[in-house]
């Protein structure tokens, strides 16, 4: 990866928080740690704060002192998941947990443990909570965006209004959805043939042009990594973008993280 010139990669969540959020970072990976300690619900706010602090400091330590980008992963547990609410999630809402964790991320940035901070899978209502609390807004929101999973318009508007950049995960349809990936490939094959590019390069370029987003394709093969770095020497026409929007299948790889799914 380093030989290819890749400077930023996303490592998996190294430490999950007891109320369902994880802290992830985008940086050069070192190692991962095991499962987080189990914390019982009645330990309340103080313990939650300690858990967030621990997750952040472990992450920074593993990365040699600081993370380039530290994200708060998921605003809570999706609706329908068989989960009890922790005590910081008062009245069936994860709001207090989110704000508690976000304050810790702000502090981590002030302390030099993270260069930039952001969130993941937040919808507009979650972002507005941060604004209403008078806290610094996230620089990034990492969300699923692909030709098959269009960005929610309200969220898009909300992010533009707050200067929040989109980091698009699963931009090729998701690692665990091979059927969807194949459908996507097929839907752009004629554009790819005309441009002399692979279907995946066209799909990534589509997300960049259509949503002004940073794409985060997952790739274990060096050939794919090299192809995914070569996205800025060709362009789709306006007609290409419109045709792909109209013909691509509609299915998100992670419907449980779509706006409105996490209270
Ligand atoms: N924040 C969240 O909730 C969340 C959720 C899901 C994923 N993510 C993150 O999003 C990133 C990517 O998502 P993802 O891996 O699920 O899905 P993805 O990027 O849509 O798809 C990954 C798949 O596409 C293949 N691929 C990549 N580049 C290719 C190319 N140029 N040509 C052909 N095939 C190519 C990969 O194959 P090879 O591996 O064989 O190269 C892999 O099977 C990861 O960093 C992941 O951690 C975040």
From TrEMBL:
Signal peptide coordinates: none
Listed Gene3D superfamilies: NADP-dependent oxidoreductase domain
SUPFAM superfamilies, per the entry: NAD(P)-linked oxidoreductase
Keyword NADP carried by entry: yes
CDD domains xrefs: AKR_AKR1-5-like (cd19071)
InterPro entries referenced in this protein's UniProt entry, alphabetically: AKR, Aldo/ket_reductase_CS, NAD(P)_OxRdtase_dom_sf, NADP_OxRdtase_dom
The keyword Protein transport appears for this protein: no
Keyword annotations of the record: NADP, Oxidoreductase
Domain NADP-dependent oxidoreductase span(s) in chain numbering: 48-246
Molecular function GO terms recorded: oxidoreductase activity, acting on the CH-OH group of donors, NAD or NADP as acceptor
Pfam families xrefs: Aldo_ket_red
Family in the record: Belongs to the aldo/keto reductase family.
Name this protein carries in UniProt: Akr2e protein
Lineage: Eukaryota, Sar, Alveolata, Dinophyceae, Suessiales
Gene name linked to the record: akr2e
